[in-house]
Amino acid sequence: MNVNRFIFISLLIDLLAFTLILPLLPSLLECFAKQDTSGLYNYLDNFIKSTQRWIGGPQMFNRCM
């Protein structure tokens, strides 16, 4: 019984941690994109944009992908 309680509390804490950070993620990514213009993030962002153009995907969700 104690093991089940421990697992439940651990999963609840994990769920709360994810629900707190996920709404902030798009704004964090936009801030990071403005600060890091020559690094890995810029390379990955350009790769995603070129892949979206190639397959004809929508660009309104770029920061969420």
Description:
- This protein is mainly α and 65 residues long.
- The chain has a domain of 41 residues.
- Helix content is 72%, strand content 0%.
- The protein is built from three helices and no strands.
- The radius of gyration is 18 Å and the shape is elongated.
- The chain starts with a helix and ends in a 10-residue tail after the last helix.
The average pLDDT score comes to: 83
Per the principal axes of the C-alpha atoms, what is the gross shape? elongated
Rounded to the nearest angstrom, the radius of gyration is 18 Å
Q: Structural class of the helix and strand makeup?
A: mainly alpha
Helix content: over 70%
N-to-C SSE series? Answer: HHH
User: So how many helices?
Assistant: 3
What are the low-pLDDT stretches, counting only 5+ consecutive residues below 50?
A: none
Beta-strand percentage range: under 5%
**Biggest beta sheet attributes:** none
Gap from first CA to last CA = 40 Å
Number of strands: 0
Strands, helices and their partners?
Elements: H1 2-21, H2 25-35, H3 40-55
Protein traits:
mainly alpha; elongated; transmembrane helix; membrane; transmembrane
Short description:
The chain is mostly helical and 65 residues long.
